[in-house]
């Protein structure tokens, strides 16, 4: 397919691409930008199009992938668009204020609960919490690996019971 034929075919298909762009973006201006970006990518990658295949499907795929990439980029920036008359771009992470009092209480309660555990449950649990592997704990405490796993499981279960006030609802 020559460059002129390719250009004419894309020109014919662009009218059917616009409604798809509108469905994806829900905004006429963004749909126009997406359509323009799709056509540009199609022209730049004309050599990758296999003659005899479905050009319309190829263009739809380019458009969908472009939309997804742009959406992921926007999410990564963690920015949303304020739709008020001023149209400000607001970085949502800058507006978060945390009160550390609640987490301070939680840490104190967690430490107290761990201290209440029997030594044979607390020690393997703390070792695992600090990053030791099961086999390392078993070697250090000279007990079977199954016993280590069981003790850590029981410690977690007891801690969950002692800290049930912090359960997410």
Automatic annotation (TrEMBL):
Entries under CDD domains matching the protein: Sigma70_r4 (cd06171)
Domain of life: Bacteria
Keywords recorded for this protein, A-Z: Sigma factor, Transcription, Transcription regulation
UniProt KW Hydrolase keyword: no
Cited InterPro entries: RNA_pol_sigma-70-like, RNA_pol_sigma-70_dom, RNA_pol_sigma70_r2, RNA_pol_sigma70_r4_t2, RNA_pol_sigma_r2, RNA_pol_sigma_r3/r4-like, WH-like_DNA-bd_sf
RNA polymerase sigma factor 70 region 4 type domain boundaries: 109-159
GO biological process: DNA-templated transcription initiation
Limits of the RNA polymerase sigma-70 region domain: 15-73
UniProt keyword Chaperone, yes or no: no
GO molecular function: DNA binding; sigma factor activity
SUPFAM superfamilies recorded: Sigma2 domain of RNA polymerase sigma factors (SSF88946), Sigma3 and sigma4 domains of RNA polymerase sigma factors (SSF88659)
Similarity annotation: Belongs to the sigma-70 factor family. ECF subfamily.
Protein known as: RNA polymerase sigma factor
């Amino acid at each position: 397919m020559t460059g002129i034929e390719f250009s004419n075919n894309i020109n014919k298909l662009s009218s059917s691409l616009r409604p798809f762009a509108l469905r994806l973006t829900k905004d006429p201006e963004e749909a126009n930008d997406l359509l323009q970006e799709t056509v540009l990518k199609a022209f730049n990658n004309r050599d990758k199009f296999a003659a005899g295949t479905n050009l319309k499907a190829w263009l739809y795929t380019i458009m969908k992938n472009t939309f997804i990439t742009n959406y992921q980029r926007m999410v990564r920036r963690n920015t949303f668009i304020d739709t008020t008359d001023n149209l400000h771009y607001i970085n949502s992470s800058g507006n978060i204020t945390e009160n550390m009092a609640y987490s301070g209480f939680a840490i104190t309660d967690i430490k107290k609960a761990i201290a209440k555990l029997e030594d044979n449950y607390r020690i393997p649990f703390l070792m695992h919490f600090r990053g030791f592997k099961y086999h390392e704990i078993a070697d250090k405490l000279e007990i079977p690996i199954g016993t280590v796993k069981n003790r850590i499981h029981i410690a977690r279960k007891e801690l969950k019971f002692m800290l049930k006030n912090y359960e997410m609802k």
